[in-house]
Specification:
- The protein contains eleven helices and 13 strands.
- It is α/β, with parallel strands linked by helices and 305 residues long.
- The chain has a single domain (3-299), classed as Ribokinase (UDP-N-acetylmuramoyl-L-alanine:D-glutamate ligase).
- It has a nine-stranded mixed β-sheet, with helices on both faces.
- Helix 1 packs parallel to helix 8, helix 6 crosses helix 7 and helix 9 crosses helix 11.
- The protein is globular.
- The chain starts with a strand and ends with a helix.
- The relative contact order is 0.15.
- The structure holds adenosine monophosphate.
- Adenosine monophosphate binds at residues 8, 10, 12, 26-28, 80, 122-123, 148, 231-235.
Length: 305
C-alpha cells in the first residue's frame, strides 16, 4: 500500500563544528519520502521553485516516489540554514527563506485522494489539516510537528491532534506541549489530546512509544561513533515508521508499531552518517535488515556486548 507524504522540500546549508556544506537537498518531506520508500510506494506532496534540480524528480521516479503532487512554482525553493553545537544534539536556525513556500496550499492530485496511510511531515498544522481535508478516508494518519508550531499555532495543532493516529515528536517538544517534566507523563497526556499512539524521540538516547491501556515500548539508539549531519534524522524516522506500516500492515496493532519504531530508528541512524540524503541514497535493504537485527538484540539485552 502507498503512503502519502506531505512536508517541506528545501535547499539547506548545514554547519557542524567540523564541516559546513551549502545547497544540499533537505526538507522534512524529502527525508520522510526517501525513508518511507524503502518499504512502500510514496505519493509526495510539496512545492519547489525553478532553481530546484530536475535530477531530483528523476531520482524520485527511480525510487517509486510519485511526484505528481509536487508543485513547481515561479520563484526560489524554500531555504533553511542551521548550525549544530558540539554535542550535535542542539542546533540553531541561522536563517529561513520561505520563498515559494510562503503561498503554498497543498493540492492533492485526484489519484492521491484514496491513499490509506498518510504522513504529515513537519509543516504548519493548518497545511497538514488542509491535506487531510482533501482525502477520502485515510485509515492511519501519522503526524510530526516542531516547537515552532507548539509556540505559534497551538489552536491549529490541537485541532489536528484529534485527527491523528500516531503523533511523533521529540522529548523537548513533548515537555513543551504538556508542561510535564516526566516523559512518561507527557506521552500519556498527549494521548489524551487525540492520538491513539505517541512516539517520543530522545535523539541519541532512542525513542519511547505509548499506546492504549498503558502499552509502552522503549527503543534504544544505534551506538554510532561518527555522526556527520543530524539534519533530517527525525523526518527519516517518521518516514521509516509510516512506510513500514503502509507497506506491511493491514490493521495497525501495538506490536506493528514497535517494529515500525525500530525500522524508523535504523533509517535515522543511517541518515546521520553523511550530509543531506547522501547515505540514504546509497543505502540497501540488506544493510537495513542487518542493522534491524542488531537493534532487536539491543532491545533484548539493553547493551550490546
Ligand atoms: P529535522 O532535522 O528532522 O528537524 O529536519 C530538518 C529539515 O527540516 C531541514 O532539511 C529543513 O529544511 C526543514 N525545516 C526547517 N525548518 C522548517 C520549517 N519551519 N518548516 C518545515 N521544514 C523545516
Amino acid at each position: 500500500m502507498s503512503v502519502l507524504v506531505v512536508g517541506s522540500i528545501a535547499i539547506d546549508t548545514v554547519k557542524t563544528p567540523v564541516e559546513e556544506h551549502s545547497d544540499l537537498l533537505g526538507g522534512s518531506a524529502s527525508y520522510a519520502a526517501l525513508g518511507a520508500s524503502f518499504f512502500s510506494p510514496v505519493r509526495l506532496v510539496g512545492i519547489v521553485g525553478n532553481d530546484f534540480p530536475e535530477s531530483e524528480f528523476q531520482f524520485w521516479e527511480s525510487r517509486k516516489i510519485d511526484s505528481k503532487g509536487v508543485q513547481r512554482a515561479n520563484g526560489k525553493t524554500f531555504r533553511w540554514s542551521g548550525e549544530y553545537s558540539w554535542d550535535l544534539n542542539t542546533r540553531e536556525t541561522r536563517s529561513i527563506a520561505l520563498n515559494v513556500f510562503e503561498d503554498f496550499k497543498p493540492a492533492l492530485p485526484e489519484s492521491y485522494r484514496e491513499t490509506d496511510f498518510v504522513l504529515l511531515a513537519n509543516i504548519a498544522p493548518s497545511l497538514q489539516a488542509h491535506v487531510l481535508d482533501q482525502m477520502a478516508r485515510p485509515r492511519f494518519v501519522v503526524a510530526d510537528t516542531m516547537d515552532l508550531w507548539i509556540e505559534t499555532a497551538r489552536p491549529d495543532l490541537d485541532a489536528l491532534l484529534r485527527r491523528v493516529n500516531l503523533l511523533i515528536l521529540n522529548d523537548s517538544e513533548a515537555r513543551e506541549i504538556t508542561k510535564q517534566t516526566s516523559l512518561i507523563k507527557a506521552g500519556r497526556s498527549i494521548r489524551k489530546m487525540g492520538p491513539d499512539y505517541v512516539a517520543i524521540k530522545k535523539g541519541e538516547h532512542g525513542a519511547l512509544l505509548f499506546g492504549e491501556d498503558n502499552q509502552f515500548f522503549s527503543c534504544g539508539a544505534y551506538p554510532l561513533e561518527d555522526i556527520h549531519d543530524p539534519t533530517g534524522a527525525g523526518d527519516t524516522f517518521a518516514g521509516g515508521m509510516a512506510g513500514y506500516l503502509a507497506g506491511t500492515v493491514k490493521k495497525v496493532h501495538f506490536n506493528d508499531l514497535r517494529r515500525a519504531m525500530i525500522y524508523g530508528s535504523v533509517l535515522a541512524s543511517f541518515c546521520v552518517e553523511a550530509f543531506s540524503l547522501e547515505r540514504l541514497r546509497a543505502l540497501s535493504m540488506e544493510e537495513i535488515a542487518k542493522r534491524y537485527e542488531t537493534f532487536k538484540l539491543m532491545s533484548q539485552f539493553e547493551v550490546p556486548l
